[in-house]
Design a protein that fits this description.
- By secondary structure, this protein is of the alpha/beta class.
- It folds into two domains: 157 residues, ATPase, nucleotide binding domain (Nucleotidyltransferase, domain 5, 2-Layer Sandwich), CATH 3.30.420; 151 residues, ATPase, nucleotide binding domain (Nucleotidyltransferase, domain 5, 2-Layer Sandwich).
- The chain has eight helices and 15 strands.
- The strands form four sheets. The chain has a six-stranded mixed β-sheet with strand order 1-15-14-9-10-11. The chain has a five-stranded mixed β-sheet with strand order 4-3-2-5-8, sandwiched between helices. Strands 6-7 form a two-stranded antiparallel ribbon.
- α3 packs across α8, α4 runs antiparallel to α6 and α6 crosses α7.
- It is globular and about 55 Å long.
Length: 341
């Protein structure tokens, strides 16, 4: 039987800087600091997104965020401005001397070397070829000995697998929906980028739908553009969140645009779910705020091409939408990725 989990009470962290030392965090764990201000039991991490960077100290053993801050980013800014914002944010959570930092960020990147490869993707183009690892090693607080990079969708699914919606599942597909489509595949607690049901580089966004790149149908720009064509010229300024609000209010065009996009995603995912043998499809990203509009067409798209997948598949939104990526990046940095889910 297919299980669709509707969101219950979730914590949405809008600004981690509101968590002072000595105050309880969202899960009731008290921040502990030494005389230098460093959280001695935590791994420092950066989560770099298209509009903001979040910095936190993560207690890996307890699976808890211990302290942090969030700063805005301009994805079209010069390289030095972007780097300055990362360092400025990181300075609010100093890591112990000799610490290893974890960095989660979208692709394309050479994650093993920390080289940004953004080109023609609508964000961070100024970072193309930039050696982020070298710059961060020189400028991050605490004189770190190493910086470990990980795709943000991969970090997300790792976090969900140990302390989120995917706990207890051995074969998990994670999808993040926001500016575009992020993806990761987890088998027995390990990230995989090849094998049955896994697209090249585990990158669902590189697949096609109706002969076109998937993100021409499923992405923020695609949804906004299609709604603008269907509705009116003024609709070009609406965000996906505003389009979702119109859909809830009965706007037929908004309902159709969102439904078509998510159904398309489901149809693309269907053969992957079957081939990979996934028992869990966990969804993160900004679009999960509209899970009431996302779940049904997504599942319908999967069932349309692979009705057999409804047996034993759980489809759920992130249980820790603001924390999973941070936790996953910390697990990766600390070499604490579990041997089994």
């Amino acid at each position: 039987m297919l299980t669709i989990i509707l969101p219950g009470t979730t914590h949405r962290i809008r600004s981690l800087s509101d968590w002072p030392a000595g105050a309880p965090n969202l899960a009731g764990v008290t921040v502990s600091q030494d005389a230098s201000g460093a959280d001695t039991a935590a791994v420092p991490v950066l989560d770099v997104g298209g509009t903001h960077v979040t910095c936190a100290a993560v207690h890996v053993g307890r699976r808890q965020i211990r302290a942090g801050a969030q700063h805005r980013l301009r994805a079209d800014a010069p390289a030095e401005e972007i780097l300055h914002r990362l360092i400025d944010c990181a300075g609010q959570v100093p890591g112990p001397i000799g610490s290893v930092w974890g960095v989660a960020m979208p692709g394309p990147c050479d994650y093993s070397r920390g080289i940004a490869l953004f080109e023609g993707v609508g964000k961070f183009d100024a970072l193309y070829g930039f050696d982020l690892q070298r710059e961060l090693l020189q400028r991050l607080p605490g004189a770190p000995t190493r910086v470990r990079f990980l795709n943000d969708a991969a970090a997300f699914v790792l976090g969900e697998s140990v302390a989120g919606a995917a706990v207890g599942h051995s074969r998990v597909i994670g999808i993040t929906l926001g500016t575009g489509v992020g993806s990761a595949f987890l088998a027995d607690g390990q990230l995989v980028d090849q094998g049955p049901g896994v697209p090249p580089k585990a990158a669902v966004h590189l697949l096609t739908f109706a002969g076109r790149p998937l993100e021409d149908t499923v992405s923020e720009r695609a949804i906004r553009a299609r709604y603008a064509r269907a509705a009116s010229a003024e609709a070009t300024v609406l965000t996906v969140r505003e389009i979702a609000a119109r859909a809830r209010a009965g706007d037929v065009d908004a309902q159709r645009v969102l439904s078509d996009a998510l159904t398309a995603l489901g149809r693309v995912l269907a053969p992957l779910v079957v081939g990979f043998g996934a028992t869990m499809l966990v969804v993160g990203g900004s679009m999960t705020r509209s899970w009431d509009l996302v779940a049904r067409p997504l599942v319908n798209g999967i069932a349309a091409l692979a009705p057999q997948t409804v047996d034993g598949l759980v489809v759920a939104p992130s249980r820790r939408p603001a924390q999973s990526t941070l936790l996953g990046a910390a697990l990766h940095a600390a070499d604490r990725v579990p041997d089994s889910a």
